[in-house]
Amino acid sequence: MPELSRDPNAYIRSSPNKCNLGGVTRTTLETILLCEAANFDVVLVETVGVGQAEHAIVNMVDCMLLLIPPGSGDELQGLKKGVVELADIVAVTKYDKDLMQEARRVKSEYLSATKFIRKKSKHWAPHVILTSSREKTGIDELWNLMCEFKETMLDNNEFYEKRQSQVKLWFWTHLKENLLEILLSKSYVREKIEKLESEVIAGNITPGQANDILISEFNNRISKN
């Protein structure tokens, strides 16, 4: 990061998470599109890796890169949380000094795991490589692998199909969030929700029935206006 921050062709920007886990928000995709419009040909989006963030970011980016540090006790979290199923490339970091043997072990475990997961693409299987920023090993291999991934997706018409699916998904995500915000802006709706929650908790009505009641009352109020 210190080297990148000194590069005049690089632009680094942190973004507020707005209480979203992992730092991924509804505006992250727009930020990516803005960077592309500004002629940045490579856009990197970093999450803090808490599980939920990876599921959100995979619907924003072209290539999902999972970084796994060995010897931290967290190297199996990707396997436990199913994050490895989302990754296009897995890079085991810190492949240097006393962690080389541990890094090779982690790589072997992730390679074994990738054999049993359902592939996201018919034309690409997740790759697992060893990298070290200290020794500058595996960096060129990682970049070449990312370029190979993009070329493979382009050659098989998956690159732009994926982007189209992503923007469609986020259109519906924004729409649902905005509709919910409009709904909760009404005081009578908030009061009704409190009553319906109590009824659901008491087991008097099902969550689905409570939802129907709330929407029905909202529609009746709207039609009267």
Secondary-structure map:
Blueprint: H1 2-5, H2 28-37, H3 52-57, E1 65-68, H4 77-80, E2 89-92, H5 100-114, E3 127-130, H6 139-155, H7 159-184, H8 187-202, H9 207-224
Parallel strand pairs: 1-2, 2-3
Supply the key terms.
5% strand; mainly alpha; single chain; 52% helix
The low-pLDDT segments are none
Record the strand order, biggest sheet.
1-2-3
The assigned structural class equals mainly alpha
User: Distance between the terminal alpha carbons, to the nearest Å?
Assistant: 56 Å
The succession of helices and strands, N to C, reads HHHEHEHEHHHH
- Main β sheet profile: 3 strands, parallel
Radius of gyration: 22 Å
Q: Helicity, in percent?
A: 40-55%
- For this entry, what is the oligomeric state of its chains? single chain
DSSP, total strands: 3
Strand percentage, roughly?
A: 5-15%
Task: Note the total helix count.
Answer: 9
- Averaged pLDDT: 87
**Shape field:** elongated
